[in-house]
Structures
1.
Amino acid sequence: MLQVQELSKSFGQKLVVDGVSLEIHKNKITSFIGPNGAGKSTVFNLISRLIMRDEGHIGLDEVDISNWKSNELSKRIAILKQNNSLQLKLTVRELVAFGRFPHSQGRLNEEDETKIDEALSYMELEEFSDKFIDELSGGQRQRAYIAMVIAQDTDYILLDEPLNNLDIKHAMNFMKMIQKLCYELNKTVIIVMHDINFASCYSDYIVAFKEGQIIASGSTEDIMKEHILEEIYEIPFAIHELNGKKICVYY
């Protein structure tokens, strides 16, 4: 279980996260939404321990996250940041092997190789395993990074604005891959995203931030309401239903 209680963070004199409390549902997809500067990415970075909190508690299995050894935490939480460009000349298999580092410390054994093979197979990348990352299409490269996360074999996957710079087709395919990980491999996923409709169509739960606080939190059905979205973004919204999913238009 991943719990956050009364989390606060300031940068200089500016309070950017103000008393945030939430609980992440196991084996579900939770999206963090909200306008720029709302605090969602800062909360993401605090949960992933990329920055240190000023106040509050972040508990993983009832142990404060600050008390976890880095290597052990990396066996529980995998993180993909928005910019995953690599300068190194790596093959797909070499990239996926990075996911095993918390387990192998760079000395791959038979179990590690099996996990790498399984990840490549799951993402249907076997035929590309010896290709260099910079030779892949955008969609293939996405699958390679997800394969790396699968090989890391964590319970939690944290994704920071993964849809930025993706066209609609690649964004849809990416979210379908994430749903597959969640529901078939029992992963718990946290995503920071700006697109409300992608959050609605592919998330189980939504946490909405504004001015460093949680302004609304609940199931997708609970959050996708006109008055809630208007309070968050301060513009008019209309909610429609399409194929059983709620989508919004703003004007």
2.
Amino acid sequence: MPTWLRDGDHRLTRRIAAWDSPAARGLLPAVEEAAEHTKLWWAAAVVMAAGGGRRGREAAAAGLLAMAWAELLSNGVAKQLVERRRPPAEWIPHGDVTDRPDSSSFPSGHTAAAVAFTAAVAPGWPWAGAACAVPTAMVAVERVHRGAHFPSDVAAGAVIGAAAAAMVRKAPRLLLRFRR
């Protein structure tokens, strides 16, 4: 990583971690808890499937499939290829640095899953995609605020999530071409 990019990544990490808004301190831990083990996205899929008719079921299925791909790509592949330490605990001025994962910081699997789910849902059901975009952005900010990731880890997770969603959305058309 170029020095200028690494230095900017480090400065932004410290700045986001130092954000001491009462709203952030109250809301971000709840978002992290909901996003842990993808509970938030499974719950959203259940609500969409139960209340959205066919469109809701299709959007939920696309979101879950994209999320699975993103988790595989981020946690199963990228984290195994890139060994990166988490931000130093001393950079995080609040007490939320306990219980950080031992895995590589790069990329953010939470962000990859969130972006994949949201980006796969949005084309089929734009309203649900817009509703999911808010907690998706909050997950990304929370990962840096808590000291679990650098902003570049979150950005890489978002790219992986977007790619996973694109793969899921394109797969049916690609399969139909193969059958011809």
3.
Amino acid sequence: MTYQELWHSLTPLYEPGEAQAIVRMLLDERFGLSLADVVCGGAEQLSEDDLRPLMSRLQQGEPIQYVLGRAMFCGHTFGVAPGVLIPRPETEELCQWIAADAHRGGGILDVGTGSGCIAITLALACRQAHVTAVDISADALAIARQNASQLGATVDFRQLDILHSASLLEGPFSVIVSNPPYICHKERESMHENVLRHEPEGALFVPDDDPLLFYRAIAHAGRRLLSPGGELFFEINPLYHDALVTLLSDEGYSETESRRDAFGKTRFIKSTFKPNE
């Protein structure tokens, strides 16, 4: 098949530009074809037996990262599979915010680690810190451990349900970070079908009547787990920013700061635990 035929086969699901980018990524990362190779008809030289099953998965809406089995995050290659959320570019900005303090030490806790992208990135960037990462999913932890091994990061991974077993964690930590589920089910209709059909629902959605479910549990646990002056960092749903600021204040946190992502959406929050104030 020609390059044009390949990307045209994805246009029922994607805009033309996105379809082209997906096919170029496949041809580059799986078959080693550069853009120049593609322009010169390199795709036509590929074995149809090799190409057809991969294109079939893409045509069914499976994300390219799952088809390739990997995703880039903060300059590192992470293994991914349908059991974990695909790392997003905006989450890189959260890691950069945390790691900006070159002298950051102490303990760092990543809640809901998934592929381990946050925990591993911070372990590599903050070598003096001891990083712990928890997730409820054994499958996700298996992927995270493999990623840590391949990238040479030291992270203490543990299987734990933060909603019901936070008491099993022991601090102190100087930082707790989480990109928890924060999308309400009522927001489904605005989401891309390939996300809904292929990425893990448990890593995406919270009940419509309790959008701050995980934030509340983590903030409450943080009162016990954070050292004085320790910080919470969250990726958030912009729709519930104000409610989260109020929740953090009610839990005794202060100096709350919000930041926008590269798309201009209020996406991150940092709040400090100062128990004597």
4.
Amino acid sequence: MAEDSDLERTEPASPKRLEQAREEGDVPRSRELSTCTILLAAGSALWMMGDGLVRHLTHSLVTGLSLERALIYDHNLLFTKIASSLMDVLMAFAPVAVLLLIVALGSPLLIGGWLFSAKALTPNFSRMNPISGLGNMISARAGVELLKAIFKTILVGSVALIVIMGQKNAIFGLPQESLTQGIAHVGHMMGVCFLAIVGALVLIAAIDAPYQMWHYANKLKMTHQEVVQESKEANGNPQIKAKIRQQQREMARRRMMSEIPTADVVVTNPTHFAVALKYTEGGMGAPKVVAKGADEVAAKIRELAKEHRVPLLEAPPLARALYKHTDLGDEIPETLYSAVAEVLAYVFQLRTFRERGGLRPHEPNNLYVPPELDPNNQAGARI
């Protein structure tokens, strides 16, 4: 079979497919979003802490350029002073560095989340195939990346040009300012330009992040056949499972039918339901249901009962209640003890009549079934 084309991949990726891709280190990523957040954090940090940072660096520079006579002749003191100056510079940049580290670690949470995959570290020699590399260079994704790079260059360049042109008069006026004012003014202009460029990158990230999510979801789409095959692997072949369930039902039905000759009585609806009961004095706490069925199964139960001379008793409400509220092998509900006791008393009397003769017992005709147990009678039922 030919390889499925992208047009045939119409089904969204299943959770298993997404998990497999994640295990292989394949998650959606947006470099533009990560770059934008880091630059935005750096610009904001320098904007807020720039004055303190400049003062700290100025103090370190002045201190570092001030040499005492003793430092010239004692190398140990000189090295100590240099180390102290370097430590001061590092401490000055420490808040900014910590902020950038936090942002760099947290930016993956915006799209894709944190991920460590050993499979991604495994060498993949297929990536060294020049033919595959050439195919990637002329792919649709490469075209999108090229267009994105061109758009980013034009946008960032335009923003930078607009900001610089807006600061033109201020730039030409710098020679007329004092050194301190000029340095502060240059720092302010560089900050404004930097934040304006980062703002342009925000627009690019706002476009790139949804595109990367869409591309990732589209790349992992599955064909209908893949969805069916995955379902078979996860849950088993539905046809085989249906066959097994059918066989299990047949086996359970045969076991149930084999219990009917040992039953004491079969209570019928008379046509829709049939429930076979059995009671062994001293061996059971209460009568048990050994067989039950509806429609065709009920007809088969009645047929086997007649064949093995098991008494049949028409008691529709009681049959419906037993069928609905009991399972095979269950004892009857306590609320039906009285009605079933009358039925069994009749059955035992009928058995005595068949063995010894005498007066034939009358079938019970006033069996009470609580209304909450009879599906068809909410006001109580008497027959």
